[in-house]
Amino acid sequence: MSTTFTLDTSTSRANPTPAPVKRLTVPAIRGRKTQGQPVAEPIVMLTAYTARMAQILDPHCDMLLVGDSLGQVIYGLPSTIPVSMEMMCAHGAAVVRGSWHSVVAIDMPFGSYEASPEQAFRSASRLLKETGAAAVKLEGGEAMAETVAFLSARGIPVVGHVGLTPQAVNVLGGYAARGRSEAEAEKIVRDARAIADAGAFTLVIEGVVEPIAALITQEIACPTIGIGASAQCDGQVLVIDDMLGMFERTARFVKRYDDLAPRIAAAAEAYAGEVRARAFPTAAETYAPK
């Protein structure tokens, strides 16, 4: 048996509920692709940062990513750079508790893996121990291939990430699409090959010109997951708050599937009006003496 958590709406507490073991596995995700062949069923991935959101998204996803994008989305930070291991552990554990079906991968924060494979193993093992997640994700290409191989050989599944790598925003000079020059395009392809050959079980390709993503998807053995890349990738990922319309501005590659921010604001406005008019609470929301 596995354990998921149901939120009691009367108390807002998470109650453990036994559920049959149906969680997808890393080999199942990797096995969706035969090199050179398109996947029969594209991989669906979304970010999640809380137990309740994980519960809502889990039935519809193959993978949930606890992204370091929580730095901007949850904490209002200017980039992913300040995100800490403590943040990733806390939110990763919440997402695992809230899910039972999806493979949960968790981002390794900036500074927790770049120094050496040994540092990366210490950080990755902590993340998996404290969260129960199945895999870690790290950014970088050829320079990180040795680390990916080191982790994979020691039982830690790795999701790679090439192209626009947000943790390198200071070097890249911003969040513009990558691969417009021939030299940069060739480097991104080399990076993808190196990470796939090192043992990553899937590879996120972010913010690159479309032909590069299509080429990488055709050439490497592991599944690719696009974000601002190509519909030909073996799967897709978006930041949940972006696709739900929680922010006024989003990247070009984001499709809004809802526009929640104005709806939430309208609900808050209605609540504020009723409180100020003393129209809330009514007898239906208060307790009478017995």
Account of the 3D structure:
This protein is α/β, with parallel strands linked by helices and about 290 residues long. It has a single domain (about 1-260), classed as Alpha-Beta Barrel (TIM Barrel), CATH 3.20.20.60. About 35% of the residues lie in helices and about 15% in strands. It is built from eleven helices and ten strands. It has helices spanning about 25-30, 50-55, 70-75, 85-95, 115-130, 145-155, 170, 180-200, 210-220, 240-245, 260-275, and strands spanning about 1-10, 15-20, 45, 65, 105, 135, 160-165, 200-205, 225, 235-240. The strands form two sheets. Strands 3-4-5-6-7-8-9-10 form an eight-stranded parallel barrel, surrounded by five helices. It has a two-stranded antiparallel ribbon with strand order 1-2. It is globular and about 70 Å long. The termini are far apart. The model has no long low-confidence stretch (mean pLDDT about 90).
CATH architecture: Alpha-Beta Barrel
Unreliable spans are: none
* Total number of distinct structural domains: 1
* CATH class group: Alpha Beta
As an assembly, this protein is single chain
Radius of gyration, CA atoms, in whole angstroms: 21 Å
CATH topology: TIM Barrel
Please state how the strands of the largest beta sheet are arranged side by side: 3-4-5-6-7-8-9-10
| Strand proportion | 15-25%
Order of helices and strands: EEHEHEHHEHEHEHHEHEEHH
What is the number of E strands?
10
The helicity comes to: 25-40%
Note the gap between the termini: 44 Å
Gross morphology is globular
Query: What do the pLDDT scores average to?
Result: 92
Q: Give the name of the CATH superfamily.
A: Phosphoenolpyruvate-binding domains
- Work out the helix count: 11
Structural class: alpha/beta
Largest sheet: 8 strands, parallel, barrel
